[in-house]
Every structure is written in C-alpha cells, then in structure tokens.
Amino acid sequence: MTAPTAGIRKTIATLPGDGIGPEVTRAAVQLLRDCAASFGHQFEFREFPFGGAAIDRTGDPLPAATLAGCKSADAILLGAIGGPKWDSLPLEQRPEAGLLALRKSLGLYINLRPIRICDPLRSISPLKPERLTGCDFEIVRELAGDIYFGEHDTRGHNGNATARDVASYSVAEVERVARYAFERAAGRNRKLTSVDKANVLATSALWRKTVTSVSRHYPQVKLEHLYVDNAAMQILLRPQQFDVILTSNMFGDILSDEAAALAGSIGLIPSMSRGKAGPALYEPIHGSAPSLAGKDVACPLGAIFSASLMLRESFGLEIEAQSIEAAVDRILERGYRTPDIGDPAKGIAGGNGARIVGCSEFTEHISAEVSDVLVHHERYGWGV
Ligand code: IPM
Ligand code: MG
C-alpha cells in the first residue's frame, strides 16, 4: 500500500429506492462516512426519490429534480428499485423504466460487475469449495443498447395479441464498450472472453466482428469468443478460466445473476455503471427483495462493496476501498453473518461459532473494524 491521498471533497447523490434499498444504502453511506472521517475526506450526501418511492411521491420514477441531482454529483449510490406495488403499471411507467431512463440520460454504457469470492463464504456457494479456487473475474456488460432500448410494442388483444422487442447495435456502440473491456483485461490477467449468439443473431455477428477488430489494438490481451449458452455452462464448470467477460445488455443481465450465485448470494455483488464522462452510478446487482424489507435482515454487502468500488473507481481512493473490503473479510472471518448468508447446511445459521445478526448490527461491526484498520496503520505506518 502507498500513503493515503490528501483529503478530498466529493458530493454523492443517494437514491435509496424501494424494498431493502433504503436499508442497504444506509449501511453503505455509514461506511463512506467512516472512511471520510478516518482519512480526512469530506463527502456530502444528497438524497433523492427514485423508483417506486418516487412514483408514490411524484407519479414519475425518475423526477426531474432527481436526474438534475445525479448530474451535478461526483458519483451516485443507488439501493434497489421495484416491488409488487408497482408491478401492475404499464412497463413504461414502472420503477424499472426509471432505471433505464437514468442510465440513458447519464450516458452510462458500461456496466462493470466484479465477481469476487469472499473466502469465509466459500461454504455458501452451490459449487464445491475446491471448484472455486482461482475464481476472480469481471463482467463488462453493455448497458445502453440492445433489446432493452429498441422498440417494444404489443398489437392486438387477448388471444390475438402479438408482441415485439427490437434488438439493435451499431459498430460504434460495440466499439466503445469493447475498448473499455480490453483496457480492464490489459490491467488484469490479459484475457477477454466476448460472449454472443453469433450463430443465430445479426446483432451478435456484428458484435463479434467489431470486438475482433478492436482486439487488434490490444495485442497483449488474448481474445476468445463464446456463445452465450456455452458461456452459461462454463461459468459453472470452470469459473477460473475467466478474467474479463464482455457481453451485450441482455446476456450480461442474465450471466451476472448466474455468476453472483457462484459467490454464494446475489446480495454480495456490486456494480458500477459509467459513460465517457460525468458521474458513475454504483449499485448492488440485487433487487429490492420486498419480502425482506423493513425487517433489518438484508445483507448490505452488495451496497457496501458498491461504496468501495466508488472510492476506487471514481475517487481513486484505493487504500480507503481496501480498508472497507479488509474490514468485511475480518468480520466474516469472525463468523458474523446476516441470515441470508448463513449456512444452514453447515449449521452456521445457529451454531458453529457463527453469529447471525441484523443488517444494522452487521454494519456496525464493519464500521468499527474500518476504524481499527486505520488505528493499525497509524501505529505501524502505511506499507505493512
Ligand atoms: C439489473 C436489473 C435491471 C436490468 C432491471 C431492474 C431493469 O436486473 O441491473 O441487472 O435488467 O438491467
Ligand atoms: Mg439483472
């Protein structure tokens, strides 16, 4: 580790959203505040309504004031959106439409989802622990195009209805996200796996051709192509073969949930969405989990790792990011778990030295540990 950066000032827009969104956002904000206090930074938090919560207050999942607040922030932290309360609304009025509009309005075309296995949680993965050895990869999902943003229409009614969703990609859209994925791979283990369905889809054939031509600028990175059905299988069979996976919006949505299962829970995975310039958006990849909401049982780690990703990627605060991640590892090693990441099979949800605690108590332990990491460094110096 190098010495910490001198104090910086940043404005962070928070969009707690729905369901467990507010609880996990609170946890992440607490750790960002701890870091700011410990390392001498100033973070100003500005909260805005978004998703179902914003529909209830203003009739719009993405109110103009929320979008303006996001645009003027240095980074955005989002909890989760959606829930049964808004499921009967037409697609274009639902909380999810607000999320797509936010991504589009901010020009967020890159979505990064790091799949990191927390060692103390190996036993909750559905894979045998030895099959996870060396599993550490990132998914780069294109976020602003594909079938998500093509025309959606339904014609006719009831038994005579037909529906259509249009998928499209331009060379420029594929190139810009591919360049980012090659850069990521160049900074890691220099392997990029591009995932498509080029044996069937025109968009995928264009995707493959474009990624191949971008690869000529990155001779140090080994490029391989996989069809999405095979990729879905390979993620389970031999996850350690991957370094960076690059894929389209729709396939990335699906494969990232599958990859999250390797880590043991979708509640553990953070994400960053960014464009060419402007603020990036950080959010756990899990949903709003309405059945867990308000019970103080949700796992806040997806949101907490989103906060550490923000420190690292948007603010260049590597030591601060590591202090949060190391604190989480230590708390897990001591056996603390929220109920959803306990291990009933191993008796962890109850016995075996595990301590099942609520979201807020779990966060308190991590928070105390972040301060301890700092005390340790102050006493022994950076670099130990
Ligand atoms: C995700 C989510 C969103 C998506 C939904 C909520 C619109 O599943 O971020 O993975 O499909 O992109
Ligand atoms: Mg998803």
Architecture blueprint of SSEs:
Elements (H helix, E strand, L loop, with lengths): L8 E9 L3 H19 L2 E6 L4 H7 L5 H8 L3 E6 L14 H11 L4 E7 L19 E7 L9 E4 L6 E4 L5 H16 L4 E6 L5 H14 L6 E6 H10 L6 E4 L1 H15 L8 E3 L5 E3 L18 H13 L4 H16 L2 E2 L17 E2 L2 H22 L4
Parallel strand pairs: 1-2, 1-3, 3-12, 5-10, 8-9, 8-10, 13-14
Antiparallel strand pairs: 4-5, 4-11, 6-7, 11-12
Helix pairs in contact: 1-9, 1-11, 5-6, 7-8, 9-10, 10-11
The chain binds 3-isopropylmalic acid and magnesium ion.
The site of magnesium ion has 2 residues, from α8.
| Number of DSSP E strands | 14
Main beta sheet:
10 strands, mixed
* Distinct small molecules bound, one entry per kind: 3-isopropylmalic acid, magnesium ion
Biggest sheet strand order reads 2-1-3-12-11-4-5-10-8-9
Average pLDDT value?
A: 93
Low-confidence residue ranges = 347-351
Oligomer: single chain
Q: What fraction strand?
A: 15-25%
Question: How would you spell out the order of helices and strands?
Answer: EHEHHEHEEEEHEHEHEHEEHHEEH
Helix proportion: 25-40%
Shape: globular
So how many helices? 11
Q: What structural category do the secondary elements indicate?
A: alpha/beta
| Rg estimate, integer Å | 21 Å
In angstroms, what separates the terminal alpha carbons? 7 Å
Structure, described:
By secondary structure, the chain is an alpha/beta fold. The protein is built from eleven helices and 14 strands. The chain has helices spanning 21-39, 52-58, 64-71, 95-105, 171-186, 202-215, 228-237, 249-263, 301-313, 318-333, 359-380; strands at 9-17, 42-47, 75-80, 110-116, 136-142, 152-155, 162-165, 191-196, 222-227, 244-247, 272-274, 280-282, 336-337, 355-356. It has a ten-stranded mixed beta sheet with strand order 2-1-3-12-11-4-5-10-8-9, sandwiched between helices. The chain has a two-stranded antiparallel sheet with strand order 6-7. Helix 1 packs across helix 9 (301-313) and helix 7 packs parallel to helix 8. The longest helix is centred in the C-terminal third of the chain and has 22 residues, at 359-380. Residues 347-351 have low confidence and may be disordered. It binds 3-isopropylmalic acid and magnesium ion.
